[in-house]
Amino acid sequence: MGNKRYRTAEEVRNRAEEAIGHPFEEIFELARKFQKENGLKEKYGKGDIGQSFEEGWFNYACNNVDKPDFEEAKVELKVTPYLINSKGYRAKERLTLGKINYKEENWEEYEKSRFWVKNRHLIIMYYKFMKNISRKEYCIKKVDEILLEELPERDKEIIRHDWEKIAETIKQGRAHELSERDFMYLSPARKGHGGDETVKYDERYPKAKPRAYSFKASYMTKLFNERMVAGKGSDSVLPEDVSLRDKGFDEVLLDTLKPYLGRTVESLKAEFPGLRKGYSIKNEIIKRIFNSTCDLEQTDEFQKANYRFRTITIDNLGMPREDMSFSVFDFNALVEEEWEESVAFEEMIDSKFLLAIFSEGEDGKEILNNCMIWYIPDKDIVKVKEVWEETRRIINSGIELKQCLTHDKQGNPGFAYKNNFPKSNFNGVSHVRNKAAQSEYFKETVNSVRLGEPAKIILLEDIPDELKDVETPTGEYMTKQCFWFNKKYIKNQIIDYIRKY
To answer: What pTM value is reported for the model?
Structure first.
């Protein structure tokens, strides 16, 4: 039978779009038929869906060469999943773009590199991932066609800068030091099962782990939303006259803030008048320093590279005044999601943070003390996962709301309800607690959620006479909750960056 010939990208795209709606079961059967007729082996594990489409739907034998899948049409085909969670449409995983060949890549010319030649013209077939649904029932939902040279100018600049950074690291014999977190959109992802496998690429240098070019999941999420869900583009946090050819994104962020270090909050407010009322003044100041019309986390680069921004105000001992909070979690979604696809992983583990540290000066006035780029150390990731797992266990086994006495500002007694989620002393890194303006246990409001399974209410044995007629919760509702980094933990992360003025 042999390979079907595709001469143009249009032919490949048309055939890809014809697959929309066809169940994967049909594609797998067509693939087995093509493989049998052509003496090919069926592939199992990661990548078998892509192979099934190439061989079953396109009738083109899958290969591992550093050239586009459809060489004559100069098109690389990708089949990749997306999902929908509490934050909307998300890429389920990074998009792998070919193995990094430490030995034979053209590290001197980006446009002649194996990465560029193989991936400059992509046709991406998207399918919706749904947990507890057999993948035989999946089907292609959307098809996109991406030419690297037609991406937005800033994207092209950042992708090229990422590639050049990979190239320079390898040329210096430091391939073993490559880490995905050091790159924005194009990263050197671990290839294989993540064990101790290493490869030698030069006798002069240490062995390095196998890696592949990949577009980060955050970048794919933004592309999917902009191109497939008719989403709007975002403002850039980088000035138009700033190029990343000479310095990295992190350096640009820090350099932008450096001239303002040591300034009081009051002087910054005077320099940037008209700050929005009802919002964090410090957040607004930083946003104005970057001349951004939207919150920094909503800017194009922050979304695509999965950066977060936080202001931290410390006391005279370097202790942050508050723990660091994240998104309110969906109880039902939390117990359904996998760790590396969870909102907690995306926000707390897979993110890089721009931290603006404010402190109290000798005159008692708050100043912008310093700024830094931070991400959670590898050794602490397991601690956050422990909290995430314990929270899931509690939701599944039963939330408890323990009644206790409290008093308002006027000294009047009342009830409060403590839950059994992990507290700040659970492991010293992270915890769960409410994130709402007011506690609410009696109805569904902006501050509360309705639970899938009612919580167990544990009442006090001895209730004061004046509170015996006070209504108690049924367990159907609970104040909204979220994950937090402990402030003591954050102190240890920033302590070496606190300046004395």
So the answer is: 0.89
